[in-house]
Amino acid sequence: SSRPRATGVVSGAFLVGCGLVWLVSQVWWRATGYRLTEEEVSLKNGVLNTRLRTARYDRIQAVDVVESVIARIFRLAAVRVETAGGGDSVIEIAYLPRDVAEQLRAEVLERARGTVPAAVSAVAAPAADTAGQVVIPEIPIARSLTGAALQGVSLSAALIIVGLVITPLTWAAALPVAIGIVPVIWNQIDSSWRFTARLTDGTLHLSYGLADRRRQSIPLRRIHGVTVHQPVLWRIPGWWCVKVSVAGYGAENEKGSGTTQLLPVGSRGQALALLALVSPLDAATIEASARPEGATIPMFTSPPVAGWVSPVDLHQQAVTLLADAVVVHRGRFGRRVSVIDPAHIQELSLTRGPLQQMFGLCTVRFDLVPGPVRMAGEDLTPEAGGVLLDALRQRELPAQRSNQWR
Fold first, then answer.
1. What is the pTM (predicted TM-score) of this model?
2. For a designed S-S bond to 78, which of 94, 109, 206, 386 qualifies (C-beta 3.0 to 4.6 A apart)?
3. How far apart, in whole angstroms, are the C-alpha atoms of residue 2 and residue 40?
């Protein structure tokens, strides 16, 4: 008789606990709300300690709709408002009905562009990712999976498995390596799953995701640098990827931030079309001066003695200065070209490592906004490095451009 009584007490305590959790969550949920005014979007939450977060429309970098796995089951979504500063400056409004989230995103984007949207119903509000010019049609699932499989990290995972089979190593020895590799492979698949890109009013609208479906917006004016990259094994099918550094997005691996890939895996034509869209260069100039296969008219290259420092990439390291862009090529096996408007270079630095000092070389580094795009004039002679540094120091800065417009 004591056992049924104890079971009843435990069950009753569990039900009471569930009721208390439900009651507290209801009170907390009713204290959460958002508001759109003429100047800003605000989010208020908290019962004992009230927290109010605001974002001015002129400081908004992007507005995304994120559907997590559980939220998709209940047809709910979260709206993430990215503001200048990234990271802690993100306002997440969760969770709303999917139609309401889409309507809120459209309205905030309109206000961020400086226009006051007309009142529309949630049902009538069109999703931003289903309108506008198609830049990248939906990437086939087979290509996403194959692209992930041909990445260097995936090959490392395959080699580990083979090593476990033919050697006496235990799974415990390979577990730490697997923990580091699996998330990278998953991220590649998740960020390219059913990926699409559309252009509307100067803003790229991306849609992608396997587990967490995301609709992300990136204003073209916020893109500072772009890089077109081809991993070595992607040279077989002729695929490329395109990444950008966006002002205010922070580091590439920042938790919760959107993707920096405009093309996870695609053809050369798609990559060059995106490069022409987001960089200062047109299609003809790209083919003449910024082909991703290698530099055609480089202005600064590494001397033969640099072979002792960079024996693999010696003949592929090049910097080309154009009227409105800086082009950097690098990579013999995994080819890469990066382009940036000179005005977007934050700082410049000339460095000389121990080996470079031994062979009389230097590197001119471009300090850019945080992101995947990294650029430098690698392994130059001191004379060439000085000329490159002086040329870029004379670049036109954004403040100078603003004064000219005034």
1. 0.81
2. 94
3. 62
Whether 336 contacts 292, CB under 8 Å:
yes
Residue with tokens 């850019």: 368
Residue 350, SS3 per DSSP = strand
Instruction: Compute the distance between CA of residue 168 and CA of residue 333 in angstroms, rounded to an integer.
Output: 33
Residue 303: name the closest of 325, 288, 324, 318 by CA.
318
Return d(Cα 338, Cα 242) in angstroms, integer: 10
- The low-confidence residues of the chain, meaning pLDDT below 70, are 1-4, 6, 22, 24-31, 47, 84-88, 116-131, 152-181, 250-257, 396-406
Three-class DSSP category at 344: helix
Beta strands in 296-387 (DSSP E): 300-301, 318-321, 326-330, 335-340, 347-351, 362-367, 375-380
Q: What length does the chain have? A: 406
Asked if residue 157 lies in contact with residue 181, where contact means CB atoms within 8 angstroms, the answer is yes
Q: pLDDT by residue (tens digit) across 303-320?
A: 999 999 999 888 899 999
- Cβ–Cβ under 8 Å, residues 72 and 209: no
Q: Do residues 105 and 81 touch, judged by C-beta distance below 8 A?
A: no
Amino acid at 321: L
Report residue 24 as tokens.
């507290």
Q: C-alpha angle 102/107/110, rounded to 5°? A: 125
Residues 6+ away with beta carbon under 8 Å from 326? 319, 320, 339, 340, 341, 342, 345, 366, 375, 392
**Interatomic CA distance for residues 309 and 358, integer angstroms:** 10
Three-class SS of residue 246? strand
Assign residue 132 a region: left if phi > 0, alpha if psi is -120 to 50, beta otherwise? left
DSSP lists the bridge partners of residue 321 as: 326
Q: Going edge to edge, which strands form the sheet with 133-136?
A: 91-97, 76-83, 60-67, 213-219, 203-208, 196-200, 133-136
Tokens 């000339």 sit on residue: 350
Question: Under a CB-based contact definition with an 8 Å cutoff, are residues 49 and 40 in contact?
Answer: no
Report the distance separating Cα 204 and Cα 145, nearest Å: 24
Residue 11, classed as helix, strand or coil, is helix
